[in-house]
Inverse folding.
């Protein structure tokens, strides 16, 4: 009679082989092994069941059940709201190198996005990127004459599910206020805070997604700005006293303009706009979500 073999070792080899395959395909970072190591008590449970059970059919049914539990535990560890998915931290430093103008494009459809003015006037961009294992980031900087063009994109790795509670990546970017900048930002399902109040922007295009975003516009300078709404919620803050004209292109969603603007048709104009030296032109293209444009008094 053939001696009964243990199902624990074949089970371990199968799980290890699957994870190694995902590592080699680039779908899972090697740091995942640290999380799998936390699941070692499952091996004790499997060994105990292996010693306790004698019938082959029952033993392999239990083996399949344990495999499902292991797979579920790994998925929860990686994608769950309190999961310990490994993250990498990358620093981005792009010096001006004599440039007098900047063009910045940020495409961040996943994770949290923070943009504000930089404390170092010598750097066009100073960024700290916290990238979860299930996301990836690419950036590039090119200088053409007196202009630096910087692009950055974060995205979900191919083949992985897009789960709202798995957005643990964080893109924090600081831009210099010492040169004029044309800025484009494309958002997604995460949360975004764009505090542009201290920047010297000449052009701004924000494409909202299905998350939430707050955009604080500069208090000075000539600015052509466009907000393309998505299915989420966006709040646009205009500093009090700013000469601004807002044009709303209606859509399926709701657009509210608050703060003493003169309303005529689809246009909202601040008092004194016609005689102001520095003006802001804001075009709001409504999506299916909600957009609120409001004036606020800065401290």
């Amino acid at each position: 009679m053939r001696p009964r073999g243990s199902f624990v070792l074949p089970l371990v080899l199968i799980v290890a082989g699957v994870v190694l395959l995902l590592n080699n395909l680039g779908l899972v970072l090697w740091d995942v092994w640290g999380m799998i190591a936390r699941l070692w008590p499952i091996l004790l449970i499997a060994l105990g069941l292996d010693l306790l059970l004698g019938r082959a059919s029952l033993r392999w049914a239990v083996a399949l059940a344990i495999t499902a539990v292991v797979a579920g535990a790994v998925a929860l560890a990686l994608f769950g709201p309190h999961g310990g998915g490994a993250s990498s931290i990358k620093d981005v430093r792009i010096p001006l190198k004599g440039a007098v103008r900047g063009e910045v494009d940020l495409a961040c459809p996943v994770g949290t996005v923070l943009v504000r003015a930089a404390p170092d006037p010598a750097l066009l961009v100073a960024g700290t990127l916290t990238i979860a294992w299930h996301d990836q980031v690419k950036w590039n900087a090119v200088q053409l004459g007196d202009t630096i063009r910087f692009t950055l994109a974060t995205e979900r790795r191919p083949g992985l599910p897009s789960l709202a509670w798995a957005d643990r990546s964080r893109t924090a970017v600081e831009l210099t206020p010492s040169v004029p900048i044309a800025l484009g930002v494309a958002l997604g399902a995460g949360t975004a805070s764009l505090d542009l109040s201290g920047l010297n922007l000449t052009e701004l295009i924000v494409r909202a997604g299905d998350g939430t975003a707050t955009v604080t516009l500069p208090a000075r300078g000539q600015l052509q700005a466009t907000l393309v709404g998505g299915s989420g919620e966006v709040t646009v803050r205009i500093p009090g006293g700013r000469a601004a004209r807002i044009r709303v292109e209606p859509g399926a969603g709701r657009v509210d303009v608050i703060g003493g603007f003169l309303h005529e048709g689809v246009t909202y104009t601040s008092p004194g706009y016609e005689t102001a030296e520095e003006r802001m032109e804001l075009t709001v293209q409504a999506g299916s979500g909600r957009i609120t444009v409001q004036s606020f008094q800065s401290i």
Observations:
- The first strand starts at residue 87 and ends at 95.
